[in-house]
Amino acid sequence: MSYFEINGGKKLKGVIEVKGAKNAALKAVAAALLSCEKWTLSNLPQIEDVKRILEMVGDLGVEVKQKEGTKEWTNKVEIQARSIQKTELSKKLAGKLRASIILAGPVLARKGKVSMPYPGGCVIGKRPIDLFLDGFQKMGARVVWKDDYFSLSARKLRGAKIFFPRITVTGTEAMMITAVLAEGETILENAAMEPEIPVLAKFLNQCGAKIQGAGTPTIKIKGVKKIKGGQMKIIPDRIETGTFVILGALCGGRIKIKNCCPDHIRALLENIQKAGVKIKEGKDELVVWGAKKIKPINLTTHEYPGFATDLQPPFTLLMTQAQGITQIHDPIFEGRLLFTDSLNSMGANIVLNDPHRATVYGPTKLRGRKIASPDLRAGITLLLAGLIAEGKTIIENIYQIDRGYERIEERLRKLGADIKRIEK
Ligand code: EPU
Fold it and tell me: If one looks up domain 22-233 in CATH, what number appears?
């Protein structure tokens, strides 16, 4: 198994570009299945999760062209679901990513049935799918659990009123996408407002959908008969942007982050500046200076536009370097603080009060260690920890980092980091 070897303590400086948003790309690939015509997606990040979802779509018999005439992987992909030949989602691939569930709706809408296994993905909590099943049922689908698969069928999907008792990002996107081809009007209430949602709705509307209110808690979708083809550019990844801001605070020098959307990480920018980190903001770029003295800032994560749960792990790492005590509260997933154990093994002093609450006692000196990446966001956090630790850090299970960050070691090396991938 490949691993990263990091020699910590280097000051980083220079320019780093943000790639396309993983969680926007995955949903756009699914939405492409609504149309018989060609969708061209550009600025796709070249990461394992995107590869997996494209493999899943290919496995359904949909045409996926990665580069003119070849199978080579680039950041531009053409998807044409002239027909969908299979209605069973691959169990092996679905086990690798939670977002695989997003494919169920469009297949159900186009074919009248779909079988899907329980989706896998990051080990950050229970991650139930009840809100998806409820939504599909409200739209007229029959759901049966048989032989390790959910079998969903509906001769005709119809519009429905769906209130989400919990705000769910992929659940909102799944119902919005599915409702596009349903008969009549669907109203989603208490919907998620993450920036990826209005961007996808806008593109779907350009292709003939009738979606109103995406980006607010109430989304109305009037069903249409047909979705046309088109070209969609994936927006910059806000989690990668935020991670690089924290990287700059921890290891800069001066780091310029290009091709980003500062408004999408407003909650982080507010908090990190209060912590004493200097940031200069441009229209689509940010400059971050390494912080000499970090103040402790208590944090509670929240759905967008609140502080993203995906940025909690690197922020918690930053707080290990703060002068004092920080309380971290992450109510969204029950496993998102488990990685603090690994930080403690590197010298941090973090007490886990319950699955959702931690107290960070700073500042602490971190020492290099051999650790395994438990999930995507924890993985990148341990990598950042390795960059500020004294001595050598080995990070194993780096598939969990490659799932969401494109060739991260090459990009960090350009900033002066001493990190290499050892292939085994
Ligand atoms: N929930 C339910 N039932 C459901 C669905 C969700 O109870 O049927 C609960 C979850 O257990 C959680 C809460 O609702 O407690 C919110 O989960 P949500 O559905 O919003 O999460 P998600 O859509 O599965 C997406 C991102 C995550 C990100 C969260 C929160 C994708 C593919 N994933 O997950 O990103 O942390 O929203 O913003 O869009 C990542 O990129 O590493 C990642 C995990």
Answer: 3.65.10.10
